[in-house]
Structures are given as C-alpha cells and as structure tokens.
Target: SLC13 family permease
Amino acid sequence: MAQATVPADAAGTGPTRARTRFSGLDLLAFALLGTGLLAVATGLVPPAGALATGGRILPILIFLGTVIVLAELARAELFDVIATRLTGWARGRNVALFALCFAFAAATTALLNLDTTAVLLTPVMLATAARAGVPPLPLAMTTIWLANGASLLLPVSNLTNLLAADRIGLSVGGFAGAMVLPQLAVLVAVGACLWIFYWRGNPARYLPPAPVRPRDRRLLLAAAAACTAFLAGVLWGERLELVSAVCALVLVAAYARWDRAALGWNLLPWRLLVLVTGLFLTVEAVGRLGLADLMAAMIGADPGAVGVVRAAVTSGLLANAVNNLPAYVAGEAVVAAGHRDQLLGLLLGANVAPLVTAWASLATLLWAQRCQAAGVRIRWGRFALTGAVTGVAALGAGTATLLLTR
Model:
C-alpha cells in the first residue's frame, strides 16, 4: 500500500508498477521507523517492549503484505471488469451508479481492507468515471469515505480491528455480530452525506460505455476463485495471515503460469510495512513520554455510556490530529481489559471519524497520491469541511447504535 503505483489505465492493462523515486509517504515511513529504532537504541522503549510489539504486529504485517499482493493481482483482471460493468448495470442513471459504486467500495473495504480500497479501487473508479464521461470527484470521494466508513464489520477490514479483536478475544463471527448494526448506521450517514455533498449535482443521465473484456479469462477466473477462497477462509475463522498468504500464493502461481511478466518484487508493499512498523514503535515511545497519561485523562475509566462516548470522541479527534492507527493504539493502552464497549467506542472513533485531514488515515494519504497521479484535483478546504460534517454524523450514528444494541 505505501508503494507508489501508477493509476490503472482505461483498459485495465495489468497490475500497477512501482515508481523508482521516493515519495513523501516513503520518507515518512523511513522517518517513523528511524524514530522508533532510535527510541529502542536509547532505551526509551526497552528491548523487551520492542520484541513484544514486534510479536504482536508480525501476523498483521504478514496479512497486510499478502492481502495487498492478492488484491493487486486481482485488480488487473477482476476489479477493472466489475467496475466497468457497474456503469452498464446503472443504465446511464446517476442515482443507480451512486448506489452501485457505494456498494462496490463498501464491499471491497469490508471484505479485503481499507488500504486495499484506497490503493487499488481509487484508480479503477477514476478510470471508470473517464469511460462513462462523468465527473471523477464523486467516485473518488465515495472510494475514500467508504474506505474509512465501511471498515468496521470484520477483523480484516482495518488494522485497528485486528488489534481490537485480539484484545477482546472475539471470533470473526463475534466481532461481526457486535459491529454489524453500528456499521449499517455509519453507512446510512456516510451515504446521505455523499449524495448531498458530491453526487446530487451530477447530470441525471450519462452514456454507458462499452464493457471491458478481461485480457485473459483464465486469470479472471483465478482471481475470482482466490478472492472467494479468501472470504471463505475469513468467515470460517482461520488465521487471517495464513488465509491471505495461501490465496496470494495461489494467484501468484496462476500469473507465473499465464502472465509471468506481471510479477515482480514491486508487488510487495514494503513501504507500507515499514511505515506500520515505525508507527507502532513510535507510538510506544510517545506513550512513555506522556501520551498515555493524556489519553487516560480524556477517555476516563467509565465502562458505561459516558465512557464509550468519551472513547469514541477522543480517538476520532486524535485520529484527525495525528493518525487513526496511533490514536487507537494509544487509547487501547489505557482502556481497562474488561471494558469491551468502551474499546469498541474507541474503535468506532478511530475508524469512521478520520475524514477531515489528509493524514488522518494511511488510506487517505494513499488515496491522495492516486488522485494526484490521475490529475484529479482535491480542494482540501472542501474536503475538510464536508469530511467534518460526515465524520460527526457517522460517529454519532455508529456510537448511538452501539449503545442502543449492547
């Protein structure tokens, strides 16, 4: 995910290729890792603490790296075909295209990962807009708002979910059962805001483009089978890093048989893995410098409704100020182990509220790179204003539903 890739072209000609130069996000990744390693070297983070952090995030890194490879290879055949079919299924109607794009982005986030949506679905959606001759910004905003807003349902949907599920001890089914109604409430709020702010001004009709044919039907079927197997493994409750690794290897083998040129080391999102590792080490260091005390004071120790609301608001504010991953990790460290609802409130804020600033989530940073590469101009003032309204609406709806259904 942190790998910089060129956007998909109008024909969906294959997996994206990495740029050789370093981007600002790459430099941020190295800076965070350097800061974390410096904290370990100076003793601010004891070696035992660093090893414990490494042991906790290793399965997450394996999952994240392999699911990106899976989705990157699937995009070249499967995602491009699905996205262009959406414009045909909508029959030239703006409202139908909105509903289909909304569902596609939400499903991709929930079933794969929010960063997968930002990295892979953004160029696909922008290319789809170009084919249909519709404004690209509504599709771009649908992608990023659903990357964040639809990331509550399953442990795979967001890195923070993996941490929360492990902390609470919930199975995939248990986690989904706890979050399904808050997730639906969030989707209603996000959908209403998307329509009001970005979609209702579009022309009511557009000319549907011709459907895109897959370059190789064998690879299309292999990608569909690998993604279906991944979803089945997740729902079955298998270890996520094992499921994603096996499915990615199966699809890599298919490409090695039928399109070896598409394979390369650039498929591995090493920059993202560096960034996530650096974030965890840096957050642990900052927590020892006083962040933990601040979070404890803001979140409080009330396991009831007040504590849930305080946790949700605190993590949402910190996510927009810093980033959602450190916001969740810092908050988790001060929430008592038995306060399940308070931890879920913390998760809600970290997942659905980071819609205001460009750095509020890794997904937003990656999405902004893809938009810039495709020539789509983002007016950050409008982004922040509409994101603030949507974030408040989504967080309020999700938190209220969580409290009403606990």
